[in-house]
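I have a small job for you when you get a moment. Would you make up a two-line entry for one protein for me to read? No commentary is needed, just the two lines. Write everything out right here, beneath this request.
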Amino acid sequence: MALFDKLTHAAKDFFIEPEEGENAPAAPAGAPYTAPAPGLPGAAVPFAAPAVTQPEQRHLDHIAGLLAGDGRDFEAYMKMVKSMAAAGMAGPLLYQTAYNAFSAVNGGTVPGLLASAAQFEQALATDRDKVLARHREKMGETAAPGAAPGPVVQLAAQEKKLAADLADLTRQLQAKQQQLLQTQQQLADERQKTQAALASYELANSAALAELQAHHKAAEAFLNASGAAK
């Protein structure tokens, strides 16, 4: 009787449509897609894919929408399997018992149930292909004809231009630094030449002045003495 009560409770839980406005059940999240880092020329900051451990709610809601059925498909059967597993059932008995209850309520068949599972798997694979295609467009790996570039592509182009501008400014700066060094060397040479010329002039002037003063004093002394003797 306890087992029958569990089966009845599980069937009641999963074959009654939820009230309008209730949140769709969240589908189990698969492994997150990790995008390869695209090569961005001149990138100052290397791109690293973030470590995502939990999917965002919007993605869970999107997946739940893909798996939402009419209550007579494999998604409904899978919910019943999980409910019975939580009640303690396992193994072949779990899946067979869940199928018996599922078939009794919906009149489904094994081929139809498995075909429903394959359709859901195909829906998930098709949706993933679409998402990956949009992701490649956003990352600039592919370009849709006539589509406006996304933020990643625009920022990558801006980064490339700024890197090129910076490289050009760096070359100009290096050229100006070289010119500055050459000018400073020329200035030092000219100052040295000018200082040397001044020092040379000072020596010549000092020697001439000393010689002139010496002869002036001698002439003054001898000439004054000679005049006094007369």
